[in-house]
Every structure is written in C-alpha cells, then in structure tokens.
Write a structure and sequence with these properties.
Blueprint: H1 2-27, E1 33-37, H2 44-60, E2 64-68, H3 75-83, E3 90-95, H4 97-106, E4 118-133, H5 142-151, E5 157-160, H6 166-178, E6 183-186, H7 190-199, E7 204-208, H8 212-218, E8 223-227, E9 253-261, H9 266-279, H10 285-292, E10 296-297, H11 302-323
Parallel strand pairs: 1-2, 1-3, 5-6
Antiparallel strand pairs: 3-9, 4-7, 4-8, 4-9, 4-10
Helix pairs in contact: 1-9, 2-10, 4-11, 6-11
Length: about 325
C-alpha cells in the first residue's frame, strides 16, 4: 500500500513538470530561433542551413536566423550551442565535421561532450564530397590523378574548407588507402577553396557537393573527378565514385542535421522533429530544394539520429588514428 501511495505521489509531482514542458512546446517558437553555422557563407553547411531556415520560418511564422561563426574547425558554433540556454532557441547545423571528425581528432580536449551535451532533434540527410580540378589540368579521371600523384609525390596540392573538416579527411583517407602524397591547403571556408580552384590558384579542391561545387561542376568551371559516396549522385550521374576508379571499399558520405542543447525539454525536441519530418516528407518544397543540392534526404527519430552520430564518431576515430591526425 505504501509503495502504491509513493508511486501516486511521484506521478502527481511530475505532472506540473510535464504540463510545463508541453506548454513550452505548444507556444514554441515565441521568438526568433537561430541556427548556428560553424563555417563561412557559401559552403554546403551554410547553404543547407539557409534552405532549412527559410522553410522553418514559413512553417512557424517566426524568423529563423542563420548565424555564421566560422573558425576552429567548426568548433566555435558547436561550443556556442552547447553553452546556450536550454530552451530550443539555439540550434546548430550539425554535420559530419562537428559531430564526427572533430570529436575523433580532439577527443577529451573539447570543451563540450559531442554526445552528452547535445540533443539530436532532426536528421536532414546525407551528401557526398566531390574532388575537383581546374579544367586546365590534364587529368580527366581520379585514376589518372592518382597515377600522376604517385609519379610526382608532394607536387600536387588540394584545397579544403579547413583542417579536420569532412572534405579534408576524405582526401586523407584517400591518401592512406592509395599511398599518394598531395599537399593540403586549408582555407577558412569551402567557398574560398572552391574560388581558388576555379581561378586556377590551386590545382584541385574537395568540398561538400551541396552548394557551390555542384553548380561549378555543372557549369564546367571545374572538372569533377569523383564523388566520395558509395554510389553516384543523381545530380551528377556522369561523375563516377572513388570506388569505381580503383579505390576499393571507399565511402565517405557527409550528413546534416539540427542539434541543440541536451537539456532542452523533450516536448520541444519532439516538436522540432515532427515539424522537420513534415517539411522533409516526399513532395515537399524543402525536400525538392535539398535534393536539388544533391542531398539525399533521410529524416529520422531523435534516437536514430543520436545513434548515427555515435557510430560516426567511432568510425572517424579509427580513420584519424590510422592517419595519425590527432590534434596536438
């Protein structure tokens, strides 16, 4: 009898907390929401954030703002989100860099726990990286590029959005598998690296296919040598994968999602998930806009997204260790 009374009392005590959380979700958002982006404007992460922000602004009738905080391999935006008030009004466009490669490189030296300090309300989808060269370069395929790099070690270079970001790591993995040696030229953002590849200042560049690289390849300003995913992109069906060009087992697929502070009330997490999944459903404008950016839309539950993040950290920890790329 006493145990039953205790259970009833505990349930009654929990009711005000549950009601408060539900009330917050029903009124959410009641003020502008910001989506933090850890990179400069113009890259795949930024482009995706702006497309999503526009769709959420229309759905919620409340402004959703993109705030760029580039630097520290995307860590600044992630740190801001981890330290934000747990009210759901600070989100981050989390990705393979912020919640995959960076935790693998920095480990316990990070000022935040990439899993414990975050909730994972909405997975958006996956996107390959693409390796590109200036049209004046003689290589027409990745296989030819690899052959030239083997014959001229250290003579070729490639640009990326920065040290430790997914594009950089995808080429580090390529070098590990093939044994080639090409020089990394890190930039402060994907747009700057692509711009120098278009102008011929650097010989090659790698970046998320979403955003500038897709249009640059389609317009012929750069030549796409290969996509990093296991299958070709529907947006560039003539560009073969790394696997098809003699790099067995190679598969690097970036991903995007919305993450927030871990202590945000569960009803708000549930609302963000439901609203985003509705926007990402088949036939919606947001889904079409994302697919036009070569993003393979794949919504999930918060629990499924959290499990995906954990698996990515484990995968990239092994790659970082094999390539001896731990941050000093």
């Amino acid at each position: 009898m006493k145990l039953r009374l205790h259970a009833v009392a505990a349930a009654l005590l929990a009711l005000p907390l549950l009601s408060a959380g539900q009330a917050c979700a029903q009124s959410y958002p009641s003020k502008p929401v910001r989506i933090m982006v850890g990179y400069s404007p113009g890259g795949g992460v930024d482009t995706t954030a702006r497309i999503v922000a526009a769709a959420l602004t229309e759905l919620w009738g409340m402004q959703v703002l993109v705030e760029n905080r580039p630097g520290a391999a995307g860590n600044i935006a992630t740190e801001v989100t981890a330290a934000a008030a747990p009210d759901g009004y600070t989100l981050v466009l989390c990705n393979i860099g912020s919640h995959g490669v960076t935790p693998a490189r920095f480990g316990k030296r990070l000022t935040f726990d990439p899993v414990g300090d975050f909730a994972f309300p909405a997975k958006i989808g996956g996107v390959p990286n693409i390796f590109m060269v200036h049209p004046s370069m003689p290589m027409k395929t990745l296989k030819q590029f690899i052959a030239y790099a083997k014959a001229h070690p250290g003579k070729l270079n490639f640009g990326s959005s920065g040290v430790g970001a997914s594009p950089h790591m995808s080429i580090e993995l390529l070098m590990t598998i093939t044994g080639i040696n090409i020089v990394h030229v890190p930039y402060k953002g994907a747009a700057a690296a692509l711009g120098d590849a278009i102008s011929g200042q650097i010989e090659s560049s790698v970046g998320n296919l979403a955003g500038g690289p897709l249009s640059a390849v389609k317009s012929g300003r750069v030549r796409g040598l290969g996509v990093t995913s296991a299958r070709r992109s529907s947006q560039l069906p003539d560009v073969p994968t790394f696997q098809e060009q003699g790099v067995p087992g190679y598969d690097v697929t970036g991903w995007y999602g919305l993450c927030t502070q871990s202590k945000v009330p569960q009803p708000i997490i549930t609302k963000i998930n439901a609203d985003m999944n509705k926007l990402l459903a088949g036939g919606t404008l947001l889904r079409k806009r994302l697919e036009d950016q070569a993003i393979d839309v794949s919504p999930a539950t918060p629990e499924e997204f959290a499990a995906h993040v954990k698996a990515e950290i484990a995968k990239w920890t092994k790659v970082v260790q094999d390539a001896k790329l731990e941050a000093k």
